[in-house]
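Researcher: For the record, we're logging two predictions in this thread. I'll number them. Prediction 1 follows.
Model: Prediction 1, sequence and structure:
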Amino acid sequence: MSGRSFLSDLIGRLAPSSGKPAASGWFGRRARLRARRWTESWRRRTATTTGAVALGLVALGFAANADDAQRVFLGAIRAAPSYALAVVPLAFAGIAFVTRRWAPEARGSGIPQVIADSHNPSSVAGEPLTSLRTAASKYVLTLAVLAIGGSVGREGPTVQISAAIMKAVHRMFRVDLTAAVVIAGAAAGVSAAFNTPLAGVAFAIEELAATYEQRLAVLTMAAVMISGLVSLGLAGDYLYFGAMHERLSLAQTFVICPVAGVGGGVLGGLFSLTLLRFGASTLAPLTQIRRRPILWAAACGAVVAAMGYVSQGATWGTGYAAAKSIVEGHAAAPWFGPAKILVTLMTALSGVPGGIFAPSLSAGAGIGAIIAGLFPSQPAGAVALLGMIGYFVGVVRSPLTAVLIVSEMTDSRQMILPLVATAIIADGVSALICGERLYHGLSKSFRPSDAAKPKRRL
């Protein structure tokens, strides 16, 4: 082929058949591709920013409403203590009925739903798990559970609500829905709920992300930072459980960390194992119970009411006030930790909406108070902190997230090494008791592909 014919052939390939200049051919397509990518990039950034601001505002409003709901309930209890024994079981049954009838995707914590949805965020079957309708139901029903003294937290529900908001905003801006969108929204929800940005990132890595890719990292960091700034700007730089600046002696650290890690790992592992086996076992008694969910919810409510009445209100709600008092070094009754574990377990088994983050931290503080009694020469608040993280890690099996949450919530950076050591021990002990991580195990019931699998016997 001659040079002239080769040049003519090249021009013909670059130029369209309509006779337009070559610049509108190959070069024009490149320009249009770059413009489309630039537009998509800015749509994605705008959606992430808008979603993070929106979920930060919702998380703050949810926190305020949750506190109001608990105050209303405690006020009613003080006026008529026996009110709980009659009303709470009926209210549990009513909320369980409403949840099962109109919002089944809103039951429980909310984190398992996000994990299930992150496996296929664009699936039609999984869409209700993180829809705005489900998020609204979760918001209202969780407040209702807190308004009747249920031992639930708002942090797990905030994760599900935040993921739903982030997905809705991305859909509004016509951005493709990926696992990164769901995970970024959920991580930002943790940041806004606890005012702990680092813990939000750690939560995305440990609990939600199967593969932590670059796009996921950027999206998560941006969402967490923005939602954290919204929370910081409106609520201030508050510490969830107050400041704890005490520390343990090096010699006692080597003794207390194993005690808190083993004790918390055993109790937390048993808690998780009970929750998972209750829904999966085919034993006749448990099968009969699951066939009467409303009656079972009323029975769970009766236990919660009885414990709240006997404990003079110590086990109601999140247990935040009791945990804060323990972390600050005040004494607590030795029965508080076990009692809080029991009411949290019964509330979770009842099927009503609500998280277990805050109640588990409170129960862990109660366990820490028991351990502190064994070491009277050491600062009680510091020992309680180790009990808190030991039990919390035993339940959720996310040691990095737990360390960052507890250290950021209490400004206890001087306790980082003891916290890490206790978390690692608790994680290992809990894994021996319950091999499956709690949230991942619970997420299976929300995956369409897993719903029809036969249940395993105990």
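Researcher: Logged. Prediction 2.
Model: Prediction 2, sequence and structure:
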Amino acid sequence: MPQYQSFPDADGASRTLDKVKALKLPVLTDRSFLDIGCNEGFFCGLARHLGAARVVGVDRSALFIERARARFPACEFVQTDWDHLPDGTFDVILLASALHYAHDQAALIARLVERLSDDGTLVLEMGIASAPGSEWVEVDRGIDTRAFPTMKKLHEVLEGYAWKWMGRSVAQAGDPVPRHVVHVSRRRPVAYLLMQPPGYGKSSLASRLFPAADVPLVSGDQSIAAIADGTVRVADHLREAVARDYSPFRIDVVVRGVFEAGAGAALVGVWAGMAGDGDFALDMFVPAEYQAQVEEAFAALGYLPVRLQWDRVGPPLLSQDALEAEADAFYGSLQSPGLPRLGEPGGPPGARGFVDELQVEPGQLLVRGWVVDEGGTLPDALVLRVNGQDHPVDSFERQARPDVERHLGLDHAQVGYCIRLPLPGLRSMADIDNDFALFVPGGASVRLTGRVQGLLSGAAPKA
């Protein structure tokens, strides 16, 4: 049998070394590789050299298989044809200079793609006939007549796959049609991810772009609302994470809480369930530090995640927390042009400030805000009243509040507090009634922000 592949010790009809350079093979480290029509195993030996964990070559010729085993004993070689391939899937499958031998070339491509791993690649080295239409062109090769597709016909055959023309391959003497290299893989549904912050125009862009392209649009806000009201059944940890902070006016806070609670992958599963089986677009703010996690979760579900990003037109928005803190500090600065006072304008001299965050943790109440006394400093002791019972607090974390420093004209910013009060049996905000206050011993109570008042009254926090 004539020598086909070329080695340093055997010159063959194929320019094998030049051909392999034209194949543009994927990275093979720790991957599996299958060469169909492997001849004497040149490409299998290269795959092992490139770090492939499993390398299999198949050929109908017993002589070629014998030679391949002798040259590359670390590889696996099987005498068979493409109708009886070894078991398992492969990360890379190579079919070089052989597709034209198939009676049904499209069916062979389909069978080989089915044998790919989820992110595998079929590497085709094939002849493409030069003709303007979509047809199979019968070509006389001297030894036989074979059908080769035109480029338009190849587009039709590969319409259901993700594929790319990688360039021309190396010509061999007597080639009747030019050779090309094409990479083929499974087509994944695309998840177009619009995850920019609130105020970036996500909904406006999505509503203009995707319905016109007949791409379903999933609203993240609606998905969160559906979880909150029980319309969508979800895992308990996701439902609890949504319910903990839910407000239709602060979806961004809810989403952040979901990811902080480790329920992000479950939320991605909800979005995928609402999307159907094909391409879709997601309109949902996701904090920047969790966006890669969203992409990974969609990829694990079989999607091709495509993140869309753009700059916001106009000045950036203040975060809701920053806006509330600045507004509260400004309001406090208007109470009196003189010494700080507590409570309503005209109240008794003393301290003043705000409770601007209230959070329940298991068996513990977290309270944050700021207070200044008549001398413009943070008092050494405070009192928390919870459900009518007073709890003296003389040890708490002191925090910087530069916003209060600016608005009150203080010479320092150390007027913020963070109190963690142990309350055995405390489970949720529902365990706290309206008899709640923070005050300086001997003085009136510190003001509560609208958001805290809403939490205590059971209403949605103000946005």
